[in-house]
Prior knowledge:
- Residues 11-291 form the Phosphofructokinase domain.
- This is 6-phosphofructokinase.
- One of its GO terms (biological process) is canonical glycolysis.
- The chain is α/β, with parallel strands linked by helices.
- The chain has helices spanning 24-37, 49-54, 87-99, 111-121, 148-169, 184-193, 207-223, 243-254, 274-292, 321-332; strands at 11-16, 41-45, 57-59, 102-109, 127-132, 172-177, 197-199, 230-235, 258-262, 298-303, 306-311.
- The chain folds into two domains: 11-146 and 272-317, 3-Layer(aba) Sandwich (Rossmann fold); 148-267, Rossmann fold (3-Layer(aba) Sandwich), CATH 3.40.50.
- It has a seven-stranded mixed sheet with strand order 3-2-1-4-5-10-11, sandwiched between helices. Strands 7-8-6-9 form a four-stranded parallel sheet, sandwiched between helices.
- α1 packs parallel to α9 (274-292), α3 packs across α4 and α7 (207-223) crosses α8 (243-254).
- The longest helix is centred in the middle third of the chain and has 22 residues, at 148-169.
- The radius of gyration is 22 Å and the shape is elongated.
- The relative contact order is 0.16.
- Adenosine-5'-triphosphate (ATP) binds at residues 17-19, 49, 80-81, 84-85, 109-113, 115-116, 119, 134, 136.
Amino acid sequence: MPQNKKPVKQRLAIITSGGDAPGMNASIRAITLKALQNGYDVIGFIAGFHGLINAEFIQLDLKSVDNIIHKGGTILKTARCKDMFNEQGVKKASCTLNNLDIESLIVIGGDGSFKGAQALSEYWHGQIIGIPGTIDNDINGTDQTIGFWTAIDTALDCIDKIRDTADAFDRIFVIEVMGRDCGFIAMESGIASGAQQIICHELISDEADFIQQLLISIKKASKQSYPQSYVIVVAENALSFSTAELAKKISEYTQVDTRSAILGYVQRGGAPVAMDRVLATQLGIKAVEAINKQKRNLMIGMSKGEIITFPLSQTGLKNKTNKDLIKRLEQFSFNLTI
Ligand SMILES: Nc1ncnc2c1ncn2[C@@H]1O[C@H](COP(=O)(O)OP(=O)(O)OP(=O)(O)O)[C@@H](O)[C@H]1O
Ligand SMILES: O=P(O)(O)OC[C@H]1O[C@](O)(CO)[C@@H](O)[C@@H]1O
């Protein structure tokens, strides 16, 4: 009977999970190159936790990560895997790791993926390291997540184009960007595009009052000759009603032609900008170094320009967005009357 031979080399596995983010491939490349250099056997599970549960994986070698640093999406595919929310699924994922003699797992994903990683750590006792990869930048403990800056540049490119047509028609535009429940993409793309208003839920305490003030200030601006085009960037889920409804309210109140646009999934695609490639590469290398040092249950992140480690168990805390976004808005508010 053939025996399942334990591989001589230490086996390291990678998954990408949750929403794909530009730069995930750059991270897979960096991990693979560093791990191969350090003598590991490297595999990648397909479609996040789904691949772990179903033992679907590929071998990662020099050839598989060649020419991927500039590509959006993820060569390992990704998924939102419901089976991880029940014990049976987590146990199956743990069995796969044991059966394949895997000793370390690197999870590239968002805070949800890190929750999945923690659930796994209750049954599987190998080393788990997280790398923050999500366009939303909503992970506690890191200033940056892989994909964030690319998503902003993509949103910015779209907002600039919409600004051209808004200007040509003297229209008001309400533009919705992604971020799930977090306003960072709205804030940065709004600042960079010179938006007249930025709306994210972190800045709203009383929605009815906020909308009333917003309408008054837009109407006041519409009575002046400047600005002729008026752009409002709104984060998805910031309001209890749709972006189209907000445009309608503004149009009715100000009598200025108002349109809405939802930028959507375009923000998740495309070649990663330099910043995301560099970050992804740095985090990938440090993740392998952490494994070499026998570390576990940590995220590798970036804080104040330094690469840091942070407990995975604290990555889901929602304690950074409000104060950071309010500070950011204060830094850029001009409040001009011309
Ligand atoms: N509480 C949890 N317990 C177990 N697994 C979880 C948990 N939360 C999330 N996961 C797993 O992680 C996957 C990805 O999580 P989620 O959909 O929240 O995306 P994410 O990693 O936060 O990325 P993004 O921010 O890009 O959406 C889930 O589909 C699920 O498989
Ligand atoms: O691809 P899905 O499952 O529709 O998820 C969309 C969500 O994913 C993200 O793009 C990244 O988390 C969010 O900004 C958005 O709310």
